[in-house]
Amino acid sequence: MEGMKACIRHGNVFDRFPELKECFIPNGTVLDGKLIMTDGECIPHFEQVMKQLQTRSLLKIEQLARVFSVQYVVFDILYHRGKAVLGRPLMERKTLLDECKNDVLAQIRFEGNETGLFEATGYAGLGNL
Fold this sequence. Notes:
InterPro entries: DNA_ligase_ATP-dep_cent. It comes from Planifilum fulgidum. The protein has 129 residues and is of the alpha+beta class. It has helices at 46-54, 58-67, 90-97, 114-123; strands spanning 7-8, 11-12, 30-38, 69-80, 83-84, 105-107. Helix content is 29%, strand content 23%. Strands 3, 4, 5 and 6 form a four-stranded mixed sheet that branches. Strands 1-2 form a two-stranded antiparallel ribbon.
């Protein structure tokens, strides 16, 4: 694995989210998560992610970056420094994610009642997370 990529089922979309260039993750690391864009009030806008995915114009991408903040919400780590870690316990993998903390990557850490998490994310408008 060389360089950084942001891949979805349609290929690498790294160039459409220049904020991701500010991320540091160790070489050979593969993360699983969801890209979100929020406005000035931290309200997520899924439709803006879709709009930016379809945008090829660098000028338009720069304009969107001034209005919306991009974060990659990380759920899990699949590879760490080139080694598969899926067989390790979840809490151990979450600890490996601490190496990847920065302003663009957000990590979901939740222990306890799943119903409470479901209700809280729905209330915050994050039901699709």
